[in-house]
Specification:
- There is one protein chain.
- The chain is α+β, with helices and mostly antiparallel strands.
- It has a single domain, classed as 3-Layer(aba) Sandwich (Peroxisomal Thiolase, Chain A, domain 1).
- The protein is built from 10 helices and 17 strands.
- Helix 2 crosses helix 3 and helix 8 crosses helix 9.
- The protein is globular, with a radius of gyration of 20 Å.
């Protein structure tokens, strides 16, 4: 396989996402006005496209410190200030404190706009879309996906799936859209229902809203708003090859996240951590159990080393299992040396991905896994989709891509796909 390259791409001169030349900007008339910017990407060779973006004021790393101090009402000590550039982040976007109705209106506007733009980028009318699968760490409303779909002009009969597996949400959604084996007994087989249909898959993360309920100084510096939606035709423009979904409960509470969605909150032998609920004729909720903060806040982190411990060990195991299955499949198909064109890895932070790369290399696993996001901070479930859209112009029909999602809980979705018809 080709050499691993987790180094950053295109870092020179990076500032606010809004400064990029192809970004379209609007201001939503909510509060004192919330700026929203998005960029559309389409590959005519692959028939795949989408849109990604962010909202709120842009903060570089120096300005972010003052923003966090204002939110906390106290200064950060020198040892509490993260070296964010070394973690791969140079800016991110945050919103001011808003009322509940204002937050709801804002995130519905953001979600509906991205769904419309992603559909139009693919050459589709929203009325043609037959499936919408969105990953979200803390949804603003239980019916959020249905609401943004309706506002975007997507038919009520389209299948709507909300996936709440923290940072793994969008990859959990993509896995459900492509892999028929993901369906449990008595559950709707989402992949079979959406095969050969026009489907939007994404992650929409209003993390600035979630962080307004957190006092965690690391979380306030790491996370920001971001969203990405990609349009695919499962089985045609993107085909599932192999994959694995795994869950390893975060016993120690290394990354505690409050569940803003319905869940029985029961943990016992034989009971899955992920609940799948049919919440309407054409709506499904996939919800993962989280280790929640005892103080009722939204996010509590055990520190950066806690995140490394949480994600790297199990993450490397899941990736290596999928890579072995992929190599076995390629041998059966007579292409044993077929490499991955790229691995799209969740951008938790650059050092986590570098350590993951190092451990994979020790197992003899090498493939490109570039760092592609710097203007967003950690945007949870949105990061894989944004990274894929940024890499999309360089991909070609027949390329194979490894998607690596992981998040709090702890949940992992790793899958290999083939692009193009």
């Amino acid at each position: 396989m080709s050499e691993v390259n987790a180094t950053t791409e295109g870092q020179t001169g990076i500032g606010s996402f809004f400064d990029r030349p192809r970004v379209q900007r609007v201001v939503f008339p909510i509060g004192e006005g919330i700026p929203f910017g998005f960029e559309s990407v389409y590959s005519p060779q692959l028939g795949i496209g989408g849109a990604y973006g962010t909202w709120g004021q842009a903060y570089d790393n120096e300005a972010l410190r003052h923003f966090v101090e204002q939110r906390l009402g106290e200064p950060l000590k020198s040892e509490e200030i993260l070296k964010l550039a070394e973690l791969g982040f140079v800016s991110r976007h945050h919103i001011p404190l808003l009322s509940g109705p204002e937050h709801l209106a804002l995130e519905i506007e953001v979600g509906a706009r991205l769904l419309r733009e992603a559909a139009h980028t693919c050459g589709w009318e929203p009325s043609e879309v037959q499936g919408v699968l969105i990953g979200m760490s803390g949804p603003i409303a239980d019916n959020y996906v249905s609401e943004i779909s309706r506002q975007a002009g997507i038919p009520d009969a389209a299948l709507k799936v909300s996936v709440h597996k923290a940072c793994d949400g969008s990859m959990g959604a993509l896995h459900l859209a492509l892999d028929p084996s993901m369906a449990g007994a008595g559950q709707t087989n989402i992949a079979e229902a959406l095969r050969d249909k026009k489907v939007l898959v994404g992650g929409i993360e209003g993390l600035s809203r979630l962080l307004s309920e957190s006092r965690d100084k690391n979380a306030l510096q790491l996370f920001g708003n971001g969203a990405g939606v990609v349009g695919i035709v499962p089985g045609e423009t993107m085909r599932f090859l192999t994959g694995k979904s795994a869950e390893v409960y975060d016993e120690e509470g290394l990354l505690e996240v409050r569940m803003f969605y319905p869940h029985a909150r029961v943990r016992a032998p034989g009971i899955p951590l992920v609940e799948v609920t049919q919440v309407g004729p054409d709506a499904i909720r996939v919800a993962g159990l989280m280790h929640e903060p005892e103080d009722g806040t939204s996010v509590v982190m055990a520190g950066l080393m806690g995140m490394v411990k949480l994600f790297v060990r199990s993450g490397v195991t899941v990736v290596s299992e999928v890579v072995r299955d992929y190599q076995t499949l390629m041998s059966k198909l007579g292409t044993p040396d077929k490499p991955f064109a790229v691995a799209i890895v969740h951008h938790a932070n650059y050092k986590i991905n570098l350590l993951k790369e190092k451990h994979l290399q020790k197992l003899g696993i090498r493939f490109p896994m570039p760092w592609l996001l710097s203007e967003f901070g950690n945007v949870s479930a949105a990061s894989n989709i944004i990274a894929f859209l940024r890499k999309l112009p360089s991909l070609r029909p027949g390329d194979h891509v490894l998607f690596d999602g992981f998040g709090a809980g702890t949940y992992y979705d790793v899958l290999a796909v083939a692009l193009g018809t």
